[in-house]
Amino acid sequence: QVQLVESGGGLVQAGGSLRLSCAASGGIFSINTAGWYRQAPGKQRELVASITADGGANYADFVKGRFTISRDNGKNTVYLQMNSLKPEDTAVYHCNAMVRLRSTVGVYNYWGQGTQVTVSS
Questions:
Q1: How confident is the model at residue 104 (pLDDT cuts 50, 70, 90)?
Q2: Of 18, 34, 100, 116, which is most buried by a Cβ count within 10 Å?
Q3: Among candidates 62, 40, 51, which has minimal Cα distance to 97?
Q4: Are 79 and 73 in contact (CB under 8 A)?
Q5: What is the DSSP secondary structure assignment for residue 105, as one 8-state letter?
Q6: Which strand (E) or helix (H) includes residue 32?
Q7: Where are the beta strands (DSSP E) in 1-121?
Q8: pLDDT in tens, 16-52
Q9: CB 95 within 8 A of CB 4
């Protein structure tokens, strides 16, 4: 059974940094496009950053220059380095991945359970 497990969230002061990880496991052949989304209380989930299979990255305007998405295909892991954090970055951050499985043809969409990021002022 495929699982995406996020880690690395926590409490940090404004201006600080965190690095989120999303490790995929369970019969995975490869990860195609992957992304990080966030959802703050009372708000809709929004895309933060995405990365293609060959490493092409895309960022929401509100994180450009501060966040960097990367991936380690050998470990089936996607990262989000977050620098210069602001209180408005406080949210639950979710990993999303389009995954090719070993056991079947096709690409399937999976979500992680989320990790809380809290930035204090």
A1: confident
A2: 34
A3: 51
A4: no
A5: S
A6: strand 28-39
A7: 3-7, 10-13, 18-25, 28-39, 46-51, 57-59, 67-72, 77-82, 91-101, 107-111, 115-120
A8: 999 999 999 998 888 999 999 999 999 999 999 999 9
A9: yes
